[in-house]
Amino acid sequence: MGTTQLEAPQEPKYWHLKTVLGDALDSEFAVGEVLPNERELAARFGVARATLRQALEQLELEGRLQRRRGVGTTVAPPRIGVSVGPAQGSWPGEGNDAWRAIGCAEAPAPANVARLFGESARDDRAVHTIRRVRMTHAQPVATELLYIPPASVPGLPELLSPGAHAQAVLRELHRLELEGEDRAVELGSARAEDAKQLERLPGAPVLLVTTRYFASGRVAAASVATYRADTCRLTFGDAGAMQITHHGPNGNSEQRHAS
Amino acid sequence: MGTTQLEAPQEPKYWHLKTVLGDALDSEFAVGEVLPNERELAARFGVARATLRQALEQLELEGRLQRRRGVGTTVAPPRIGVSVGPAQGSWPGEGNDAWRAIGCAEAPAPANVARLFGESARDDRAVHTIRRVRMTHAQPVATELLYIPPASVPGLPELLSPGAHAQAVLRELHRLELEGEDRAVELGSARAEDAKQLERLPGAPVLLVTTRYFASGRVAAASVATYRADTCRLTFGDAGAMQITHHGPNGNSEQRHAS
DNA sequence: TAGTGGTCTAGACCACCTG
DNA sequence: AGGTGGTCTAGACCACTAG
């Protein structure tokens, strides 16, 4: 032996670890089962805890693990498919879409949101801002800020209790005919406020879904929703019944696709 | 002073750092500008390099920074909006959709893909597998594996060169009438193979877009596309012209939405 | 109170790019 | 060759959860 060892250690330790752990999860662990703690795992694999943690972070990012401070690391269930596409309730709050309003306010839209409404509403007054949470299987999967310009809900009743006010704004909004929607998805990290509602730590990876609702030839409402990236798979179209993808066990697909 | 310091150091250093750096990016740096190197930044802020790196990682995750080994850390341009929704070329490869086939093969579908085709094709023979890359602004933004069962392309000509074969399969596919599509988006990390094509390191955060194409009352094709999460914003519908969201400067939206 | 994951440090070496 | 970011180590302490 000696220098004859031609192994390719090009592969970082944490990457190799991730693979090994991932395989172990598929073959030796059941969903919900708790793994040994980080210090023991690190010792068992002969690496520093920081290195072990790098591997765990990746697996958590891929939705295979769930870590909770003070509790432990458990094997995560497959991601939940949550429908965000059209072909459903159309307007926000229409149909049984599992959103729950938890607050509302009237304030000038922040710059990034004002942009969604286009040039027209540049110097607009305060917009109705509704904060909602989306629950699935008794777990919070998303928070959302819904922005509705006063012009979209002209016939609004008197000042009401915060809860009732949100209901009233949505009800008024539904009187309009929805002409179409627009959507964008990007990666982000949870702001402190959102993180708390999603029961995650600040900075946790999230999927930001920005939506524009069109009616009366203009943007009648807009929203920015924050979905937990670890537990959610966003579905569009009638993909509700689509099976999981789960970059998993044999999903590694080590075939030649080459050239 | 002394114990009178009631500051809330609950906020982790890296989180605070991220905020400070983020603000600095907006006010003092131009897109493309290179930041001081990590060792100097760490010293300047009085933290260990690992802590500084945690902040940079977050900013990179949010698409605000771009780091390249051996080169440096630069301020990233706003994310590129790439259209993935319907209302475009419909079939993959139809229209000018900036995809370029770089290889193809016939092999049994991996388990996770076979699932997309439903029960019917459980024990199916090899499927056509086409690997494509999507370019935008001369940069690779996505790689894709397109799976097409032989049944979907019956009239396929003789064995051709790898490149021509991919073209032929797609051309045959276009003869079918597309009845609808299905889509799911989730967070993942780049496999080594994809990472290379996307000019990123293995494990880089990506958005996995799984699509099913329906024709003749069944799934005629399916694909798993891997988009760079740092540089891309996926758009659906006619959101092509939608302005950036950019969780940015004043986007922090420190208003009360409370209850 | 004991045990977990989360944060932080101060170093070291490596892989990669550029001049 | 020199500088960059990427990986890794071996510690320490903190915040949280649970029995």
UniProtKB/TrEMBL annotation, chains A, B:
SMART domains: HTH_GNTR, UTRA. Pfam families: GntR, UTRA. Coiled coil: none annotated. Keywords: DNA-binding, Transcription, Transcription regulation. InterPro entries: Bact_HTH_transcr_reg, Chorismate_lyase_/UTRA_dom_sf, Tscrpt_reg_HTH_GntR, UTRA, WH-like_DNA-bd_sf, WH_DNA-bd_sf. Residues 11-78 form the HTH gntR-type domain. The keyword Metal-binding does not apply. PANTHER family: GNTR-FAMILY TRANSCRIPTIONAL REGULATOR, MANNOSYL-D-GLYCERATE TRANSPORT/METABOLISM SYSTEM REPRESSOR MNGR-RELATED. This is GntR family transcriptional regulator. It comes from Streptantibioticus rubrisoli.
